[in-house]
Amino acid sequence: MSGQTWIAERHLAHTVPPSVTRASLGAGESEAISLALELDADRLLIDEKAARRLAENLGLMVIGTLGVLLAARRTGRIQAVRPQVEALLEKNFWISPQLVERALASVGEAKP
User: Fold this and answer.
1) 36 within 8 A of 60, measured Cβ to Cβ
2) Structural domains of the chain, count
3) What is the pTM of this model?
4) Same domain, yes or no, for 22 and 59?
5) Which of 25, 36, 50, 87 could form a disulfide with 29 if both were Cys (CB 3.0 to 4.6 A apart)?
6) pLDDT 10s digits, 28-62
7) What is the pLDDT of residues 61-93, one digit of tens each?
8) Concatenated DSSP letters for the chain?
9) Does 57 share its domain with 69?
10) Which domain range does residue 85 map to?
């Protein structure tokens, strides 16, 4: 991937639709959902629970940070999920401890 990027900055062509603004989400979540709808995106990467619920209700497929890490582990792109999650937690990323343990168990990384 020398010189290439897999992330491209995109801006909304239209205003945030009322179906999104009524949900009283943060600006980032509202714009992410609106852009995903505008682009007819395959998936939306979003972690905040209310935003995920709204996106799903609007017909979007969602995945969270933990889901991306699990997919990377299952496809061999990373060797282990636990160190990645621990690094996120050190940076004050919040995720339910129960969800973390269930996810880690699903890839054979449960605590002994």
Assistant:
1) yes
2) 2
3) 0.82
4) yes
5) 25
6) 999 999 999 999 999 999 999 999 999 999 999 99
7) 999 999 999 999 999 999 999 999 999 999 999
8) -TT--S------SSPPPHHHHTT---HHHHHHHHHHHHHT-S-EE---HHHHHHHHHTT--EE-HHHHHHHHHHTTSSS-SHHHHHHHHHTT----HHHHHHHHHHTT----
9) no
10) 65-106
